[in-house]
Amino acid sequence: MPDLVSGLSTLGLWAIIGYLIGSVSAGLLMARLFGLGDLRRIGSGNIGATNVLRTGNKPAALLTLVLDAGKGAIAVLLARAFVAEDAVQVAGLAAFIGHCFPVWLGFRGGKGVATFLGTLLALAWPLGLAACATWLVVAGVFRISSLSALVAAVLAPLWAQLLGLSGLVALCLVLAVIILVRHADNIRRILNGTEKKIGQKS
Fold first, then answer.
1. Where are the domains of the chain?
2. Sign, Cα dihedral of 76, 82, 83, 85
3. What is the pTM assigned to this prediction?
4. 128-138 in b/e burial notation, b at 16+ Cβ within 10 A?
5. pLDDT tens digits, 39-72
6. Residue 179 class from Cβ within 10 Å (0-12 exposed, 13-18 middle, 19+ buried)?
């Protein structure tokens, strides 16, 4: 944990700002822009890039991935321009929560993987690159997006510690727990061998 130097009002303000940034649904916006229909009625019903990819529209999926990652990064970088690192971490966490539980969609949002990676890249790029590399390696071997996300999330606290970023370990643990919870159904499908692979249409 970073030193707690910001007041509660400052932390609260940046929690709200981060949440509002994170709650913008890039997946729904891209689905509408590309005429893909209501993403919540396609494939898994998830609003993230993996489900957009299941429509077969790779540009839309790529844009969703970049924009969802950008939400976490924007929240972190914007906060860092004005406040101390404790509030920066709060903003990043809030953006992640906003993506996963957006009030505008009845708190039914994405699973947070892209926003998780974007947040880590902005907080500390070596940690973000380690998490991205973990995702890519697992995805390259198993071709399962959810498994890649789970491994990247679980290993993120370890990467933070090994990279000398002990102030980010607690945040990584919180993010990992939320990702595990959000992927409960995926974990069950992985265990019984029915989880869809990357690029596989529903």
1. 8-192
2. positive
3. 0.92
4. bebbbebbeeb
5. 787 777 778 887 887 787 889 889 999 999 999 9
6. buried
